[in-house]
Amino acid sequence: MPIKKDRLKWIYERMCLIRKFEDHVHDEFAAGAIAGFVHLYAGEEAIAVGTMANLRDDDSITSTHRGHGHCIAKGVDINAMLAEIYGKATGACKGKGGSMHIADMTKGMLGANGIVGAGPPLACGAALAAKLRGTDQVTACFFGDGASNQGTFHESLNLASIWDLPIVFVAENNVYAETTSTDYSMRVPNIADRAVAYGIPGVVVDGMDVFAVYDAAAEAVARARKGKGPTLLEGKTYRYYGHFEGDTILYRTKQEEQSYKDRDPILQFHKRVLEEGLLSEDQLAKIDQQTDTTLKKAKIFAAASPFPEPQECLEDVYVKYP
Amino acid sequence: MPIKKDRLKWIYERMCLIRKFEDHVHDEFAAGAIAGFVHLYAGEEAIAVGTMANLRDDDSITSTHRGHGHCIAKGVDINAMLAEIYGKATGACKGKGGSMHIADMTKGMLGANGIVGAGPPLACGAALAAKLRGTDQVTACFFGDGASNQGTFHESLNLASIWDLPIVFVAENNVYAETTSTDYSMRVPNIADRAVAYGIPGVVVDGMDVFAVYDAAAEAVARARKGKGPTLLEGKTYRYYGHFEGDTILYRTKQEEQSYKDRDPILQFHKRVLEEGLLSEDQLAKIDQQTDTTLKKAKIFAAASPFPEPQECLEDVYVKYP
Amino acid sequence: MPEREITYREAINEAFVQEMQRDPNVILLGEDIAGAPGRDDPDMLDAWGGVFGMTKGLVGKFGSQRMLDTPISESAFIGAAVGAAASGMRPVVELMFVGFCGVCLDQIVNQGAKLRYMFGGRAKVPVTVRTTIGAGLGAAAQHSDCLYSIFTHYPGLKCVLPATPADAKGLLAAAIRDDDPVIYFENKVLYETKGPVPEGEHVVEIGKANIVRQGTDVTVVALSRMVNVALEAADILNKEGISIEIVDPRTISPLDEQTILDSVRKTERLVVVDEDHPRCSMATDIIALVATKAFEYLDAPARMVTPPHTPVPFSPVLEKFYVPDAQRIVKAVMAVVPQKR
Amino acid sequence: MPEREITYREAINEAFVQEMQRDPNVILLGEDIAGAPGRDDPDMLDAWGGVFGMTKGLVGKFGSQRMLDTPISESAFIGAAVGAAASGMRPVVELMFVGFCGVCLDQIVNQGAKLRYMFGGRAKVPVTVRTTIGAGLGAAAQHSDCLYSIFTHYPGLKCVLPATPADAKGLLAAAIRDDDPVIYFENKVLYETKGPVPEGEHVVEIGKANIVRQGTDVTVVALSRMVNVALEAADILNKEGISIEIVDPRTISPLDEQTILDSVRKTERLVVVDEDHPRCSMATDIIALVATKAFEYLDAPARMVTPPHTPVPFSPVLEKFYVPDAQRIVKAVMAVVPQKR
Ligand SMILES: Cc1ncc(C[n+]2csc(CCOP(=O)(O)OP(=O)(O)O)c2C)c(N)n1
Ligand SMILES: Cc1ncc(C[n+]2csc(CCOP(=O)(O)OP(=O)(O)O)c2C)c(N)n1
Ligand SMILES: [Mg+2]
Ligand SMILES: [Mg+2]
C-alpha cells in the first residue's frame, strides 16, 4: 500500500531531525560540552522512522544505548532530549538519566537502556499488559546485532512466541557490536534466521531504505495488532559515527563506510520521492528548514536551561520511602 | 558400525546400575532416610549411557540437577555417590554437595548443578581448555528441555559455534520441566530445531533406544574430536518418577507414562541384543547379578560411613584464606 | 473471639486471594505457580500451585490469564513483570529460590530498581518479586541462601522479610499495593508454622519494625526465621534471669531505625541474629547503624550471630552447624549482658 | 635510583605482560579486549584493547588464542572462564562494567565461588574476574556502580580493590596466581593516575592492608579511589593540626582485620570512606568489625562517608553531589576528633 503524503512528510522530517540532532551532539561532544557515554544513531534513521511510522502514540517501544533515534521517531520532545544530554533540570529525566536513559512514558518510550539486551524482557512486559487488558496496542523492541547473542534475546523471543505477544522485535544489524563484527560473533548470515527457533516469522530488509522498513514493519505491526504474535524483523544498516563518541574506529575501512553512505537513507528517500513524484522539492526544502528551526530552538532551550540543584540527587528513588 | 561386545556389556551394566541406584534412592527418600531435593534419572538411562559409551575417561561432562545417571555413566564411584546422597563424610563431596552437586573432577565429571542452564557455559570452558591445549578431548553437556529456554543455552551454543568448540550438547527432552510440558514452553517441535540459529548440526533421536543414541553421539563426538565444532543432539525421553522425590505428578496421565514404559530402554536393549544374538541370556543375567552386588556393596558402604564432623562445615571454601 | 490460626503458607495464599479480588491489575507470574500450564483438563491445571504450594487454588479462582506459568527464563519473565508494572499492571513475580537471582539480577536491580530514578521520577514500577530463602531443608549451596542483604544494598528496592503468618499476609498485601518494587522474602522453613492471622483486610506498613518481646537487658535484632530462634533463646535466658528485647525489623529496606535505636538506648546492648552470609550483611548494617547513631548508649561490644563465611553445606550434620541456633544466641547474649549481682 | 612512574592503566597492562609470559595457562577473555576479532589485517586487530585500552598491545604479543574476544554474552564467556579454570587454565575474564553483573552473576557466585565447596574441596577455580567500578565519568546509573560489597558478601570469592598503580600491578599478579576465584575491581577514574611501580616481578599479598599515611587522631579506612580523596582530606586536616591515619584495605575479602583494629586501638576513632551504596556495604562491614572486636577502644561514634542511598545520577552537578569528596571526610573527621586544647 502506498504511503500517504502526510506520512511521507513525517518520515522525511523525522529522519532529518534525527540526523541533525546526532550531528549536533557529535560536535558538542567533540567540543567537550557533553559528558558520559554517547552513542549516535546517524545512518540508521530508516529503521526507527520506518518502524515508528506504523505505530500509534499509545503503542510502546523499548530502546538501547543508541536511543536518540528511537526517541525522536516516537515523538519525545527534542528540547527535553537535548537538555537531558547536557544534564539540565529541564531534561526528559531531569538530568538524572543522560543520553543512555532518555525515556518518556507518556509517549510510550520505555527508555534507552545501558544494558545490552535488557530491552526485550521489558518489551514482553509492555506487550503482556496490552494483551491482558485486551487493547490492541503493539510494542516495538529495538536491539542491535550484538544484543542478539545475549541470553535475554532468546528468552524473550521464546516468551513472546508462546504467549503470542503483540511485539515486533526489530534487530538493527549495523554489522558491529563495538569493534566486533557479526562475521565473528555469529555463524548465521542473518539475525532473522534465528526466528525459526521460536516458530515465528523472521524477515530481513534493507535498513537503509525506509520504504522497505516501512512495508515490513507494517506487516509485522498488523500481525501483532491482530493478536497473531511476534515477528523478528531485521534491518541491515550501519552507524556512521564510532561506537561511542571518542571511538577511533580502527576496526573498519573507509571503503566500507562509504559503501553505506552511498546508500544513505535520507538521500535515498529524497531521490525516490522526487523521482516518483511523491513529494516536491519545495515540500522537502520546507521540511529541511523546519527541522533546522526545531533543532535551533532545542539548542537555545537546552543552553538556557539551568542545571538541577545538587540536592535533586536525593529525589525520585522511590515513590515513597520514609 | 556395530558396537563391540564389551561395549554392549558395559552399556547394559551401566543402564542397570543407574536404574537400580535410582529405584533404591527413591525408596530411601520415601522412607525418610534422605534429605533435600532429589531428582531421579530412571527412564532416561539410554541417553547418558549411549553418549558416554563414546567418551573417553579424559573427556569431560557437565550435568544437571538430575545428575545421578550422568555420574554413573561417566564412572563416578557409586559408593561415594550414595554416601554423598546421605550426607556422609565418605561422599564424593564429603557430604557438602548432596544429590544436586555430585562431582568427580578426576573422572571429568564437572558436577551436577542446581541451576537450570548453568552447565552449558561451564562446558564451553572445559572444551576451550582442551582446544587451547591442543588435546582432542571432548565435552558432553547434558541439559533438559526446560533448560533450552534459558538464556545460557543460547549464549553457549553461539559461543561454541563461533569458536568451533569440541562439545556435544545433549538435550534430554523428557517432555516436562517440573509440571510444564514442552507443548506449552516452546513453539517448535524439537529442541534440535534451534541448532539452525547457530549454524551447527541439530539431530533428534529416540532417547529410549540406546542404539540410536549411541550412533548419533558417535557421530557428534567424532565431529567434535576432529575439531569440527559442536552438535546439538536431542534425545526424546521420559522420567519415570516425579520431577523430584515427593512430587505428586498430577500433570501427566498414566497412559502417557505407560506409553514410555512400554519402550523402556533397558527392556528394549535386552530384547534386541538377544534377538540379534549380540549378547546371551547368561551374559545379561550375570551383569544383572553383578550390578545387584555393586549396589548392595554401596549400600553397606554408605550405611557404615560416618557423618562428617560438624566443623567440617568450615573447610574447603578456599584453597587459601587467612 | 480468639483469632483463628493459619499457616504461613495459608496466610500468603489468603493475601493473594484478597489482593487479586481487590485489584484486577494484580497478576502472578512464575514457574509452575499454577502447574500443568496449557492443559485443558481442569484437574491437571494447578498441579503444583508453586513448588511449595503457596499459590495453590488461585488459578481456579482467577484463571490462567492472571496466573501465568512461565518457561524457565527468569530474565525474560521477571523483566516482563517489570515492564508490565511500568505499563500499569501490578505484577507479582516468583523467583523460585533467591539463589537463582544470578540468572536475572539485571532485570531486578538495573531495570526494576533504577527506572524511576533514571527517568527523573517519571515512571513507577509497582512490581513485587517473591522469593524463598533459608537453609534447613538439606537443599545445599545453591538453594539455601538468604541474600536479602544484596537486595538491600541496591537503592530503589524495598525488602520485606515476614517472620510470622500474620506478617506474611500483611506484608504481602502491603508489597502488592506499594508503588515501588518490593522484594518479598519467604522463609521456606516457616511455611508450616501456624499463628493468628486477621481474616479480613490486613496490611502491615512497610518500614515498621515489630517488638516481638519486650525486655530490658539486651536488644536482640532478629531477622526472618531467626525471630523464632531468638524466642527460644529468650526462654532459656529468662530462666537465667536475663531479659532480652527481640526486635524484628520485618522490613529491612527501608529499615525502621528508630525502633532499633530506641531499644538499644534502653538496653545498652546489641546482638544481631541474621541467617544471611556475615560479610556486608544486614548484621553489619544494623551494627553500623547503632555504632554511628547510638554509640553513646552502647555499653558493650555489639555481637553478630550469623552462619560462618561459607556456602551452605548439604549434610544435615553440617547444615545444623551452619544455621545459628538458640544456644549461639544465648552465648552471645551472655557475653554482653551486664553482670547482675 | 628513583622508581619510574607509570599510570594505573600501564601498570595493569604490565602485570598482564609479565604474568602471560610467566604462565602459558593465563588467557584473557572479554568483549573487545583486543578488538576487531577475526580480522586478518594486523592493524585492525587490537582496535581497542578493551574499552579503556587496558589490554592494548597484548594480542600482538600473545596472539588471538590467548586474547579471546567474545560476543556479548557474559554468562557464557564468564562461565566458560570458570569452566576453563576448573579444567586447569588460569583465565582472566573481563566484565566490562560491574553494573553488568546482573546478567551473569550466577556463573560467578553459584558456579565459580561455590564449586570448590560443593565438591568437598576436590576442585579449584583459579579464575580472575576483572571489572571496572566507580562514578565520576557521567556514565549514569548502570555504568557507575561499585558493588564490591555484593561480591564480598559471597563466601568463596576474594575481592581486591587497587587504589594505586603499584597495587594495580601487584594485586593483579596476585589475583592471577591465586588458586581461588578473585574479583579484581579497577576504578575507571584512576586509569590516568601515575605512581611509582616496580619494573620487575611485583606481587602484593592478598589480604594485606596498607597504611597509606600514619596518623594519631582518627583512623580513616578508605577504599579504592576514596584513598586519594582521603589524602586530600588529610592535607586539609593537617593544617588544622589533626592527624589522620589512612588505611587502605586493598583487599576486602579477605579483610586484613588486624591492621584496621590496630589502627583504631591507637586512634580510638573511626571514619570509613566508601563509594559503594551505603546499605549492607563495606562501610557497614568495617564499622561492625570494629564495634564487635575493638569496641572498648572506640571513643566516639563511628562515621560512614558514603554516597546517599540513591542510584548514581547522570548530570555532572548531581554526580558531584553524589560522590564523597574531601570536604565530607573533613567534616566527618572533625565530628569525631578529640577536642585538642
Ligand atoms: C550487558 C552488557 N554488556 C556489554 C555492554 C557494553 N556495550 C555497550 S554497547 C555494546 C555493543 C552493542 O552492540 P549492538 O547490540 O550491535 O548495538 P550497536 O551498538 O551496534 O547499536 C556493548 C558491548 C553493555 N552495555 N551491556
Ligand atoms: C535457574 C533455575 N530456575 C529454576 C529452577 C527450578 N527447577 C529445577 S529443575 C527445573 C525443571 C528443569 O526442567 P528440564 O530442564 O526439562 O530438566 P528435567 O527436570 O526435566 O530433567 C526447574 C524449573 C532452577 N533450579 N534453576
Ligand atoms: Mg551493532
Ligand atoms: Mg525436562
List its salient traits:
heterotetramer, A: 322 residues, alpha/beta, Rossmann fold, five-stranded parallel sheet, two-stranded antiparallel sheet, 11 helices, 7 strands, 43% helix, 10% strand, globular, C: 341 residues, 2 domains, seven-stranded mixed sheet, five-stranded mixed sheet, 14 strands, 35% helix, binds thiamine diphosphate, binds magnesium ion
Written description of the protein model:
- The complex is a heterotetramer, with 2 copies of chain A (322 residues) and 2 copies of chain C (341 residues).
- By secondary structure, chain A is of the alpha/beta class.
- Chain A has a single domain (5-314), classed as Rossmann fold.
- In chain A, 43% of the residues lie in helices and 10% in strands.
- Chain A contains 11 helices and 7 strands.
- Chain A has helices spanning 5-30, 45-52, 68-74, 78-86, 119-133, 151-162, 182-185, 210-225, 254-261, 265-275, 281-304; strands at residues 60-62, 139-144, 167-173, 176-177, 180-181, 202-206, 231-236.
- A 5-stranded parallel beta sheet of chain A has the order 1-2-3-7-6, with helices on both faces. In chain A, strands 4-5 form a two-stranded antiparallel sheet.
- Chain A starts with a helix and ends in an 18-residue tail after the last helix.
- In chain C, the strands form 3 sheets. A 7-stranded mixed beta sheet of chain C has the order 3-2-4-5-7-6-12, sandwiched between helices. Chain C has a 5-stranded mixed beta sheet with strand order 9-11-10-13-14, sandwiched between helices. A two-stranded antiparallel sheet of chain C has the order 1-8.
- Chain C is built from 12 helices and 14 strands.
- In chain C, helix 10 links the parallel strand 13 (270-273) and strand 14.
- Helix content of chain C is 35%, strand content 17%.
- Chain C has 341 residues and is an alpha/beta fold.
- The chains are: A alpha/beta (322), C alpha/beta (341).
- At the C-D interface, helix 4, helix 6 and helix 10 of C face helix 4, helix 6 and helix 10 of D.
- Bound molecules: thiamine diphosphate (TPP) (2 copies) and magnesium ion (MG) (2 copies).
- One thiamine diphosphate (TPP) sits between chains B (39, 64-66, 114-117, 144-147, 172, 174, 176-178, 243) and C (31, 72, 74, 96, 100, 103).
